[in-house]
């Protein structure tokens, strides 16, 4: 076992070992305070082990860990945010009586979310993806309120639906490709020639798109993210949705141009980017607005990936990971910031609000922030055509949405004027915000291949600035015009889907009635005779 | 014709040792032993050792084990034969019965003259008889011999249903008995036709001799129809839910995990070993359609149940449906046991057996702790019997087909086979069935993990009574580490079928 391989194993094993150790009462009492330590081996691995790999079990099981560049970026960002959010939770949830149970769900989700970035074979990927999807249920449901109950139910239903899409997609992929449990890369290489190429791609995009929140499978996000405790919202919106990003990055065949599916993904992604903004600005809870912003931003990532698929450009995977890393840290900082703001009195708000403004506008590409760098890099694959223009314009939408968010978050100050959020909340928040800037600049050259100075050229700065100005103008105009925005319920189309419930109930009633009828003696006897006759007749027909 | 192998007597022991156990239970008072569980557990230990020895010998020799009864080779005499498939079935049965016996010991450990003593005696005797019958089904090579085994199985299983003597369980048992008897009659009719036609009921002999004609097809249709009734394939499941839900938990576990698998096993033998090749695709489609209907309808009905044990029973009817999908997924022209469809179907059978037994055992303790098994009022179970709720969840993982679990690998292989054979509708049914299973398992878990709204009265359950269910559930999970390819073990001795 190489040192790099050992690090990868430790990254995955540490959170799981924490869960296992919870069987010991002594450890269980302390586990909540130890949460920030669980992702640290992964953080070390992300820095020290790119390119490393480890064979956990040889063929035909073939369980393999491997860390490529996109994986390393996301692994590092995720580990950092998990650690910061774990630190934040120590203060935020210090008096929560059920925090031990929460810690177990947290650790399981953590293990799965880091796992998806480092496993290289299909079965392990599915295992890790299921782990992160299903364990996150515990984070969503934690508060136990009726709202959390219904949100977690919808979350679970959609997560399981996504699993079903993916399983079918994976089976199609594996059936066309090498037998047994192939490496993801080998299976994907066989995809362009597969007889089920289109069905496979559709299922993969459905399954991963659901996790990323692509419309119309985004409904769980604005329901689930606001009801979770603050640190859980930060990791849900920051990290868990990236399982979908890494899925698309790993499973789409970038080696050969696929114009049809690439274009479809661009259209879906851009539509989602605008849709998230349009619904988001009607919302009145800061956390719900942030959730819709995640929907919008993930739409943009999908569009970037779609552009790479259209062109057959494998480099887009690094770019998508870079964009996702930026969003991960910024969105994590924003969610933690909502909690900080709520605990900060009027006298100390200015500075905090300033940090929040930088983070929020980073999502719209504020110059010098990681957002500006990410958007600058995204221009490459999206080009100057219609898609590129729409993507650039969507930054104005993000600016509009984030200004709306800032206005909402500025209003939340019910506490005493001289109240100050403790360092237990402020330190992880500020660290995450700083990390977003630091990681953005550090990784710009290695990930994208541009010199950092190119993002500071006047043209680039102007490209980043005008959407902000436009967004500001829109926000100003909207406030001035006095147009009342409609009140759209959280989860928008989910409310429509609820109208279908009576129909679903009727199916259940029908099945019960059918069962009751079939379980009557004369019917069962008749069925038995009929089956024997039909079997006899069909056995005689030739193959 | 099969020559007896040196380890052949092991097969006789596998059938006879449980019978010796039954006799020992009868004469126990004369030997100064007061508790039937002591005798039964000793027999279980020996039985597990025999099943292990058979398994090890199969793996080592890579050939079927054969025993010729009385030295008379078929078609004149009888033979017992264990190939890889039988070996795996016997190991599965031994594992489930061992866990059930450990679980049932505190419940059925009273001396014969103590209150409930007759019931304890009956439980252990019936369990022994049932085990012997199961092993005979897995080893028998003669269709009439198999009929006897099936009857023995039914007569051991039916009283288990009404062990508590309540009116409604007696009614459920009678229902079960009558429908099983109809199934037996059809099976017997089929064997009579085959015997009249070919003058033998030895599967090995029929394999070469049976030709595709009306008599053969009529006989096989009658036999498969009868076996379906005994396996409770939808829509012939009228007897299963009340019987499996009404029996005491350890009995339910054995009934749902093992007893319904025996008739299915014989259907497999008829289909692949007796029917002249190639089996008709239209007939395979009939079986698959019924299986699909079972999955869809009974999963929805399971979702609507108010009682935990009824929900688990309906889940059994749904899961049996998956087994019948197999026939359409095995492409003609190749040896079936080398296909992924075969391995997928068998893994489904085994992982369902382990998971379902674990579920019934866990449900029994949940009901004991709470005093009821109403799903709506399960809140608090997670605190009272945490290990059982955890075992229920792990077993549920396998039913839902989520990794890592045997159910996941089975589902993956079946999906794979469905796509390879172009049966898209089967792939969709498997996927939808998984979603419905997730819904009915999650519904129970959600309630069980919740904190009760008001203080509830619970009865303490000794922690060690929760282990057998957990052990079985962990075995179902461990099956998830079987590689995704045709399993060599299942092919041992199949190719050499005379």
TrEMBL record, chain A:
Pfam families according to UniProt: Proton_antipo_M (PF00361)
Chain ranges of the NADH:quinone oxidoreductase/Mrp antiporter transmembrane domain: 121-376
Record field: transmembrane: 6-27, 34-59, 71-88, 100-119, 125-141, 153-179, 199-220, 232-252, 258-277, 289-309, 321-344, 351-374, 386-406, 427-448, 460-479, 523-542
N-terminal signal peptide: none
InterPro entries the record matches: ComplexI-like_HydComp, NADH_UbQ_OxRdtase, ND/Mrp_TM
Keywords for this protein: Cell membrane, Membrane, Oxidoreductase, Transmembrane, Transmembrane helix
Topology class, membrane: Multi-pass membrane protein
Main location: membrane
Record localization: Cell membrane; Membrane
UniProt key word Oxidoreductase: yes
Domain of life assignment: Bacteria
Protein name: NADH dehydrogenase
Automatic annotation (TrEMBL), chain B:
Membrane topology: Multi-pass membrane protein
Transmembrane segments: 12-31, 38-56, 84-104, 120-138, 144-164, 176-198, 218-240, 252-272, 284-303, 310-330, 350-371, 383-402, 422-445, 466-484
NADH:quinone oxidoreductase/Mrp antiporter transmembrane domain: residues covered: 141-435
Location within or outside the cell: Cell membrane; Membrane
Domain of life: Bacteria
Family statement drawn from the similarity comment of this UniProt entry: Belongs to the CPA3 antiporters (TC 2.A.63) subunit D family.
Protein name per Swiss-Prot or TrEMBL: NADH-quinone oxidoreductase subunit J
Species whose genome carries this gene: Ancylobacter radicis
């Amino acid at each position: 076992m190489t040192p790099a391989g050992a690090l990868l194993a430790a990254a995955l094993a540490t959170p799981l070992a924490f869960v296992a150790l919870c069987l010991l009462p002594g450890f269980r009492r302390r586990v909540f305070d130890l949460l920030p330590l669980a992702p640290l081996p992964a953080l070390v691995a992300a820095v020290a082990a790119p390119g490393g790999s480890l064979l956990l079990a040889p063929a035909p099981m073939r369980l393999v860990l491997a860390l490529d560049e996109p994986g390393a970026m996301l692994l590092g960002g995720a580990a950092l945010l998990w650690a910061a959010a774990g630190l934040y939770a120590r203060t935020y949830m210090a008096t929560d009586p059920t925090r031990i149970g929460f810690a177990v769900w947290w650790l399981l989700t953590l293990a799965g979310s880091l796992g998806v970035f480092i496993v290289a074979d299909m079965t392990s990927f599915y295992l890790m993806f299921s782990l992160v999807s299903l364990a996150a249920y515990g984070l969503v449901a934690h508060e136990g309120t009726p709202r959390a109950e219904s949100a977690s139910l919808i979350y679970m239903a959609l997560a399981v639906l996504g699993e079903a899409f993916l399983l079918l997609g994976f089976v199609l992929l594996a059936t066309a490709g090498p037998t047994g449990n192939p490496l993801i890369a080998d299976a994907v290489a066989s995809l362009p020639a597969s007889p089920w190429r289109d069905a496979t791609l559709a299922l993969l995009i459905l399954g991963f798109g659901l996790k990323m929140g692509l419309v119309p499978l985004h409904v769980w996000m604005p329901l689930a993210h606001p009801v979770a405790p603050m640190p859980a919202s930060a990791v849900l919106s920051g990290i868990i949705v990236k399982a979908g990003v890494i899925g698309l990055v790993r499973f789409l065949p970038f080696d050969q141009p696929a114009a049809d599916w690439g274009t479809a993904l661009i259209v879906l992604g851009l539509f989602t980017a605008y849709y998230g903004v349009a619904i988001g600005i009607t919302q009145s809870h800061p956390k719900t607005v942030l959730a819709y912003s995640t929907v919008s931003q993930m739409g943009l990532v999908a569009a970037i990936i779609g552009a790479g698929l259209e062109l057959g450009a494998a480099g887009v995977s690094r770019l998508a990971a870079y964009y996702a890393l930026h969003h991960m840290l910024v969105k994590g900082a924003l969610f933690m910031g909502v909690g900080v703001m709520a605990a900060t009195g009027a006298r100390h708000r200015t500075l905090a609000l300033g940090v929040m403004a930088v983070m929020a506008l980073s999502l719209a590409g504020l110059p010098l922030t990681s957002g500006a760098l990410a958007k600058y890099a995204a221009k490459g694959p999206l080009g100057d055509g219609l898609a590129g223009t729409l993507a650039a314009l969507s930054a104005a939408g993000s600016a509009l949405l984030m200004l709306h968010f800032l206005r909402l978050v500025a209003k939340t100050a019910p506490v005493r004027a001289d109240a100050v959020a403790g360092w237990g909340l402020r330190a992880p928040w500020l660290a995450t915000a700083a990390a977003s800037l630091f990681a953005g600049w550090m990784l710009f050259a290695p990930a994208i291949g541009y010199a950092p100075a190119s993002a500071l050229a006047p043209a680039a700065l102007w490209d980043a600035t005008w959407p902000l100005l436009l967004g500001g103008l829109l926000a100003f105009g909207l406030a001035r015009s006095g147009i009342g925005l409609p009140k759209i319920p959280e989860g928008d189309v989910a409310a429509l889907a609820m109208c279908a419930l009576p129909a679903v109930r009727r199916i259940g009633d029908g099945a019960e009635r059918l069962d009751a009828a079939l379980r009557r003696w004369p019917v069962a006897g008749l069925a038995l005779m009929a089956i024997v006759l039909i079997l006899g007749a069909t056995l005689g027909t030739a193959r | 014709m099969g020559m007896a192998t040196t380890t052949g007597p092991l097969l006789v022991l596998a059938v006879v040792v449980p019978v010796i156990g039954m006799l020992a239970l009868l004469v126990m008072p004369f030997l100064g032993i007061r508790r039937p569980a002591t005798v039964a557990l000793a027999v279980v230990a020996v039985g597990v050792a025999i099943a292990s020895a058979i398994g090890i010998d199969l793996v080592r020799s890579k050939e079927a084990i054969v025993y010729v009864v009385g030295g008379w080779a078929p078609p004149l005499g009888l033979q017992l034969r264990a190939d890889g498939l039988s070996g795996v079935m016997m190991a599965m049965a031994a594992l489930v019965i061992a866990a059930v016996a450990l679980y049932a010991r505190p419940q059925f450990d009273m001396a014969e003259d103590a209150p409930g003593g007759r019931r304890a005696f009956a439980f252990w005797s019936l369990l022994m008889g049932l085990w012997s019958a199961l092993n005979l089904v897995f080893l028998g090579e003669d269709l009439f011999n198999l009929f006897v085994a099936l009857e023995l199985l039914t007569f051991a299983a039916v009283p288990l249903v009404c062990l508590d003597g309540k009116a409604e369980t007696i009614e459920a048992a009678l229902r079960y008995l009558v429908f099983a008897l109809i199934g037996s009659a059809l099976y017997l009719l089929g064997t009579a036709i085959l015997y009249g036609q070919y003058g033998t009921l030895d599967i090995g002999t029929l394999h070469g001799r049976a030709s595709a004609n009306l008599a053969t097809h009529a006989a096989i249709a009658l036999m498969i129809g009868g076996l379906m009734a005994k396996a409770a394939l939808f829509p012939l499941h009228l007897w299963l839910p009340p019987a499996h839900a009404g029996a005491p938990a350890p009995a339910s576990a054995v009934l749902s995990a093992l007893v319904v698998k025996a008739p299915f096993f014989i259907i497999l033998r008829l289909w692949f070993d007796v029917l002249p090749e190639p089996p008709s695709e239209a007939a395979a489609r009939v079986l698959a359609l019924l299986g699909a209907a079972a999955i869809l309808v009974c999963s929805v009905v399971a979702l609507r149940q108010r009682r935990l044990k009824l929900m688990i029973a309906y889940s059994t009817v749904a899961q049996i449906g998956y087994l019948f999908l197999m026939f359409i997924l095995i492409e003609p022209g190749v040896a079936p046991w080398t296909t992924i469809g075969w391995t997928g179907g068998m893994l489904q059978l085994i992982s369902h057996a382990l998971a379902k037994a674990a579920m019934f055992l866990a449900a029994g303790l949940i009901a004991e702790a709470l005093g009821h098994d109403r799903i709506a009022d399960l809140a608090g179970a997670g605190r009272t019997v945490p290990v059982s709720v955890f075992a229920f969840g792990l077993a549920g993982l396998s039913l839902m087909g989520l990794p890592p679990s045997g159910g996941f690998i089975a589902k993956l292989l079946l999906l794979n086979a469905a796509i390879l054979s172009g049966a898209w509708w089967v792939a969709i049914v498997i996927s939808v069935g998984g979603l419905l299973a997730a819904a009915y398992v999650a519904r129970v878990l959600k309630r069980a993990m919740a904190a009760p709204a008001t203080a509830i009265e619970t009865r303490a359950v000794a922690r060690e009574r929760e282990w057998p269910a957990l052990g079985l559930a962990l075995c179902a999970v461990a099956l998830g580490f079987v590689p995704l390819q045709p399993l060599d073990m299942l092919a041992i001795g199949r190719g050499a079928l005379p």
